[in-house]
UniProtKB/TrEMBL annotation:
Family: Belongs to the class-III pyridoxal-phosphate-dependent aminotransferase family.
Identification of the protein by name: 4-aminobutyrate transaminase
Keyword Transferase: yes
Cleaved signal peptide residues: none
Pfam families recorded: Aminotran_3
Superkingdom, natural source: Eukaryota
Entry keyword Transferase: yes
Keywords associated with the record: Aminotransferase, Pyridoxal phosphate, Transferase
Higher taxonomy: Eukaryota, Fungi, Fungi incertae sedis, Mucoromycota, Mucoromycotina
Cofactor dependence: pyridoxal 5'-phosphate
Entry's Gene Ontology molecular function annotations: identical protein binding; pyridoxal phosphate binding; transaminase activity
Taxonomic source organism: Absidia glauca
Segments traversing the membrane: none
Gene: ABSGL_13579.1 scaffold 14267
Length: 430
């Protein structure tokens, strides 16, 4: 029998090894951009719980909405009733997702990606899905087949879902035919479009291909924004071949890039948009949105689930939109983004292991160190956590560090975070 007096080291053994915990910190509480551990120490959170705490930790508007809702009802089964938070949420989201106007909900990003793939396959009566090297779409049995960010996610779990075909992401820093450090975004985008056309001719006929699934900014794959014009070209490609375009905005959505959805930067409308993470400031909620004509091709009863459209999570999502509108969060993201990239670029000559690609969009901030030894990015993240009390994440198979601050972060906090980050990089590089 385990006893409540067993040590931390004994207790933590109860967690299976499949879930990696990157530190021994135990969180107690959090406010805005600061997380306080049970030992009373504060840490500056530049991860937002992997892009989730969009309005900062425990925003009073979100806390109140959740507390009010919990006191009234915590679980309303969406297969049995409508509820006001869900109806309000759809109403409030539509101006942002237009012309996509019909929703389907899930609990996690992976599930929502799978809903999008189910819809695409069923609606088109075709099966193939084209995805991109470096893309991350989740860990469930279907989503891991679609994930090309790290083999760690799928190794040993096969056979994977069939009908999945990969091309390169338009990653201009590493564009295969432009050569390493190519930085030729136009060329890179065109090269990927060429790969797509070749794929359709050699392996994946348009008559068998349901959809292209893509992140507007590669997330777990390294915070790589697609080049200008890329999504317009992809839209034309999809229309020409009668293939659906699915934008995975799980990480890029809800203001993370300075627009409500990142695809808006390219003035392109996908057929299906996938959303999760920041939607409800920390409560499990995800979903897809499409035009009614497409969404209504879902067979009745084929979607949903026990916890889908949870009444507390949807109340938190409505409150999240309140905060966005009342506090002009999108404008803050745009201003803070300009500030952070300027500050990082000003310090670029202090950064080791160049060339260093400082990149991203909005408050998706990535730094890739082309010449760094394996493990450098992870060491910087560890040093920053232990010595600077700054929480960061790595990304991709390359030496990349990412910062994902809450979208309500203020200028002084962000400057402070950049300074702690740069100090950590310089220290670890020795
Ligand atoms: N898509 C993208 C773009 C993601 O970044 C993630 C998670 N990092 C997922 C899907 C999967 O989401 P979840 O972890 O909520 O299943």
């Amino acid at each position: 029998l385990s006893s409540s007096s067993s040590s931390f080291n004994e207790k933590k053994q109860a967690l299976g090894k499949g879930i990696t915990v990157s530190s021994d910190l135990v969180v107690d509480r959090a406010q805005e951009c600061v997380i306080t551990m049970t030992n009373g120490e504060d840490y500056l959170d530049m991860t937002s719980g992997i892009g989730v705490a969009s309005t900062g930790h425990c925003h009073p508007t979100v806390v109140k909405a959740v507390q009010d809702q919990v006191a009234k009802m915590s679980h309303a089964q969406i297969n049995m009733f409508y509820h006001t938070p869900l109806l309000t949420l759809m109403d409030r989201l539509r101006p942002y997702t237009a012309p996509l106007d019909t929703f389907c909900f899930n609990n996690s990003g992976s599930e929502a990606v799978e809903s999008a793939v189910k819809l695409a396959r069923h609606a088109t009566k075709k099966q193939n899905i084209i995805v991109f090297n470096g893309g991350h779409h989740g860990r469930t049995i279907g989503a891991m087949a679609l994930t090309g960010s790290k083999t760690m996610f799928s190794a040993g779990f096969g056979p994977l879902m069939s009908g999945v075909y990969y091309v390169d992401y338009p990653y201009s820093f590493r564009c295969p035919s432009a050569g390493f450090e190519g930085h030729a975004p136009d060329h890179c985008g065109k090269e990927v479009m060429r790969q797509l056309e070749t794929l359709l001719q050699q392996r994946c006929h348009p008559d068998d291909t349901a959809a292209v699934l893509i992140e507007p900014v590669l997330g777990e794959g390294g915070y790589v924004p697609a080049p200008k014009g890329f999504f317009q070209a992809l839209r034309t490609f999809c229309d020409h071949h009668n293939i659906l375009m699915i934008a995975d905005e799980v990480q890029t959505g809800f203001g993370r890039t300075g627009k409500m959805f990142a695809i808006n930067h390219w003035d392109t409308v996908p057929d299906i948009l996938v959303m999760a993470k920041g939607i409800a400031s920390g409560y499990p909620l995800s979903g897809i949105v499409a035009k009614r004509a497409l969404m209504d091709l879902q067979p009745p009863g084929s979607m949903g689930g026990t916890f889908v459209g949870n009444i507390v999570a949807t109340a938190a999502a409505v409150a999240t939109l309140d905060v966005f509108e009342q506090e002009n969060v999108l404008q803050n993201v745009q201003e803070r983004s300009e500030q952070v990239f300027k500050r990082l670029r000003c310090q670029a000559d202090r950064l080791p292991f160049g060339p260093v690609d400082i990149r991203g969009l909005g408050l998706m901030i990535g730094l890739e160190f082309a010449g760094a030894p394996k493990g450098f990015a992870a060491q910087v993240v560890k040093h920053a956590r232990e010595q600077e009390h700054l929480l960061l994440l790595t990304a991709s198979i390359y030496e990349t560090i990412r910062m994902i601050p809450p979208l309500v972060v203020d200028g002084a906090t962000l400057d402070d975070a950049v300074d702690r980050l740069v100090r950590s990089i310089v220290h670890v590089a020795g």
